[in-house]
């Protein structure tokens, strides 16, 4: 998520509910700076739904303490003596499968590369850490982002743990209608009786072959995007791909490089005034909103420096709405895993224009905030597991019958 993406406002759709605080989310803080450990630990303990259960100055001590401390979430620094974060990460996950690890790093290119590597090794998300203790102590953005991510990711981990521990129940027949439950996206009878059923509806696919693919993602997005583009493959050769991933500057340029390898297509941060061409992936640069506009007979990239939208910069909604203005019903939108509700207004615009939207399901999302909010607009044609989203998009782009 971008450094400008604060905690979601009250009432935003996160896909989980913290409810009464009876068992706080357990957090381990791992950082070689005693100032950082003390400050982050104090912030966490001030939240009644969170509790620091351990604090360590390097990865070696943290790995050795995972079983005893039994954290739900680990806030993990990268550069530490004795054992760095990247080395400690797989050892932690091996000791406690399902552990949520949140990487905290400063905004250098090296640390951005390492953070994205950590995501590929199983970290759930990252957070850009202000450089220097003075900036850290005064950064309300960092504090809000950190607490929001620990809350949301921790609640998600708790929810999955409870469902996995619950005894199975027998299923029952159901009638096929165009609801999530009946479409097979949610079991007719959940394995956990207390889990509420999704009750929103899906639209029928519009029989329009897309001329553009536009994507929005946030928490868990880099991992999801790599998988998505691996499944879409060469099917995107005939359309431009426009992407907003909530990320700060430096990270987005590196993300584009990674996506180019995954997709086998050219990918880069969008540049102001650049023509939008088929077969290319344009990534919104961190700290700028990316939209598209007409310039004579061409469609071009425009970068704007306006205020955050939905607490995010770059944001998904401005991109989606601008794409609809140009491509109308020939727009295919995708919302992948992420916190908050950014993209919901853009999804509504696509649906109202007669385009199609596919969103990732709850089970495969790191956080079902953005995709959940999109699904609840009633404008989505499908809600699918991640590995099916890319395959479905590929078939649509190639003109197959839906």
Distance between the termini: 33 Å
| Class derived from helix and strand content | alpha/beta
Low-confidence stretches: 1-19, 169-196
Strand content: 15-25%
Helix and strand succession? EHEHEHEHEHHEHEHEEEEHEHEHEH
Mean pLDDT: 87
Bin the helical content: 25-40%
The CATH superfamily of the largest domain turns out to be Methylesterase CheB, C-terminal domain
Give the C-alpha Rg.
21 Å
Broad shape: globular
The tally of domains stands at: 2
Please work out how many helical segments DSSP would assign: 12
Oligomer: single chain
The third-level CATH topology of the largest domain is Rossmann fold
- Name of the CATH first level of the largest domain: Alpha Beta
CATH architecture descriptor of the largest domain: 3-Layer(aba) Sandwich
Major sheet: order of its strands?
A: 8-9-7-6-12-13-14
Number of strands: 14
Main beta-sheet annotation: 7 strands, parallel
Family: Belongs to the CheB family.
Enzyme class: hydrolase
Keywords: Chemotaxis, Cytoplasm, Hydrolase, Phosphoprotein
Pfam family, one: Response_reg
């Amino acid at each position: 998520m971008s450094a400008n993406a604060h905690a979601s406002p009250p009432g935003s759709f996160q896909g989980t509910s913290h409810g009464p605080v009876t068992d706080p989310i357990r957090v381990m803080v791992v950082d070689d700076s005693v100032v950082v450990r003390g400050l982050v630990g104090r912030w966490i303990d001030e939240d009644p739904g969170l509790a620091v259960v351990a604090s360590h100055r390097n990865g070696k001590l943290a790995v050795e303490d995972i079983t005893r401390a039994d954290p739900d979430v680990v806030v993990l620094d990268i550069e530490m003596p004795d054992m760095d974060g990247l080395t400690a990460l797989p050892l932690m996950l091996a000791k406690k499968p399902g552990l949520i690890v949140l990487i905290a790093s400063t905004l250098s290119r090296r640390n951005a590369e390492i953070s994205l590597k950590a995501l590929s090794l199983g970290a759930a998300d990252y957070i850009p850490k202000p450089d220097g203790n003075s900036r850290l102590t005064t950064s309300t953005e960092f504090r809000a982002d950190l607490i929001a991510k620990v809350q949301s990711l921790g609640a998600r981990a708790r929810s999955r743990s409870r469902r996995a521990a619950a005894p199975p129940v027998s299923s029952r027949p159901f009638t096929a209608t165009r609801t999530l439950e009946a479409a097979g996206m949610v079991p007719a009878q959940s394995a956990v009786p207390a889990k509420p059923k999704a009750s929103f509806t899906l639209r029928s696919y519009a029989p329009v072959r897309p001329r553009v693919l536009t994507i929005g993602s946030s928490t868990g997005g880099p991992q999801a995007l790599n998988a998505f583009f691996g499944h879409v493959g060469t099917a995107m050769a005939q359309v431009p791909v426009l992407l907003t991933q909530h990320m700060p500057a430096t990270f987005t340029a590196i993300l584009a490089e990674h996506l180019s390898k995954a997709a086998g297509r050219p990918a880069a941060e969008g540049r102001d005034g650049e023509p939008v061409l088929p077969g290319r992936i344009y990534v919104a640069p961190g700290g700028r909103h990316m939209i598209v506009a007409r310039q004579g007979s061409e469609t071009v990239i425009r970068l704007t420096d306006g205020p955050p939208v939905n607490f995010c910069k770059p944001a998904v909604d401005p991109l989606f709405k601008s794409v609809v203005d140009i491509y109308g019903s020939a727009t295919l939108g995708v919302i992948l895993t992420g916190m908050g509700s950014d993209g919901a207004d853009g999804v509504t615009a696509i649906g109202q224009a007669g385009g199609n939207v596919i969103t990732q399901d709850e089970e495969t999302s790191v956080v079902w905030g953005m995709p959940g909010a999109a699904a609840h607009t009633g404008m989505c044609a499908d809600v699918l597991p991640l590995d099916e989203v890319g395959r479905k998009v590929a078939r649509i782009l190639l003109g197959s019958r839906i």
